[in-house]
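Open question from group meeting: does this chain pack into something compact, or does most of it stay loose? Before anyone orders reagents, we agreed to write out a predicted structure and look at it together. Recording both the input and the output here so the notebook holds the full record.
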Amino acid sequence: MRLFVGDDWAQDHHDVEVMDGVGRRLAKARLPEGVAGMARLHALIGEQIAELAGDEPVEVVVGIETDRGPWVQALLAVGYTVFAVNPLQAARYRDRLGVSGAKSDAADAHMLADMVRTDSHQLRPVAGDSPLVEAIKVVARAHKTLIWERTRHCQRLRHALREYFPAALEAFDDLDAPDALELPARAADPLSAARLTISQISAALTRARRRNVPQKALRIRAALRSEQLRQPAAVAAAFAATVRSTVAVLRVLNEQITAMHTCVQEQFEQHSAAAIVVSQPGLGPILGARVLGEFGDAEGRYASARARKNYAGTSPITRASGKRKVVLARFVHNDRLLDALDSQAYAALKVSPGARAYYSRLRDRGASHSGALRQLANRLVGILHGCLKTATAYDETTAWSHHADTLAA
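Structure tokens returned:
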């Protein structure tokens, strides 16, 4: 016997409905988030099991529009089968049941219960990843988010300098480097920057462990003292205040990125699959942690290499109708995973002869750089799947053996 539960979750409550195998509503309720709500859900389901099944084993199937959080973990812990329904799938299914456009939390709970009752064979159950890989995903995502935040603040700093102090952009190539952060913080306006001495600039470069300090110090001083168009003094002072604030934020971000880098590496090295992952071309501890964390490590989660590629978003989709057939890139995907795989494919070009030859062959056929890189990433995902499935490290010859003839030609 099976019971089907639709769970429409919000920040502080859950609307749930319990349904039997023929679509009959057995119970519904609005439950609070947390331990009390979970206890009431178990009690609600238990009452239906006692009334309908007695001692007969019952499978509880839950449909919910998320795959993470303490609530989902609690559902998995008691042995419920949980399907994480994509919100886009849920919206399409809602339109299938009615065309009026009406929507409510209770109605969505009913829709989710009915969806897992009739279409569970089309849905992917939430995989039970290990706590370690969940931890790796948390720290790897935090590390990448900090990097993205640093990039945003660097762009804001660049924009502000362009508005009132363009000479600073000529002086500093890398705005998030320690020397580029120290000198604008000390002299954030054109007049103060022009008064910086060679010794002050050299000291900042030395602390940043730069090479060719004397030559770089002379170049920076010349750029800071060059003639330039200027804003009125009051406007320049206002911009200088914003620059000092942004520089302070960037310094903290640099410190925390370094700290999280160490944390990611320590967590990743504890995983049994770490050696296999870093053996892949283009993957080091940080990028490998991002890939492993996003893929997860639940056994049997990916039935085949194609299933892993589809989840990664690297495999193409085909739209065919009559005589018209178009092959397109997937636009619905895990952005963080695809970003990591793109970085891996680009790095693999330098360290893997097979990857470089495969990419070159695709370019010779007329593929664009991004298209060839995407196809290379797709191929590397398949190789990773095989290595994880067989618990073997990457081997260059084995990975590209079936391409050997065409690559040689």
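Observations to bring back to the group:
The two ends are 60 Å apart (CA to CA).
The beta strands are 2-9, 13-19, 25-32, 59-64, 81-84, 317-321, 324-328.
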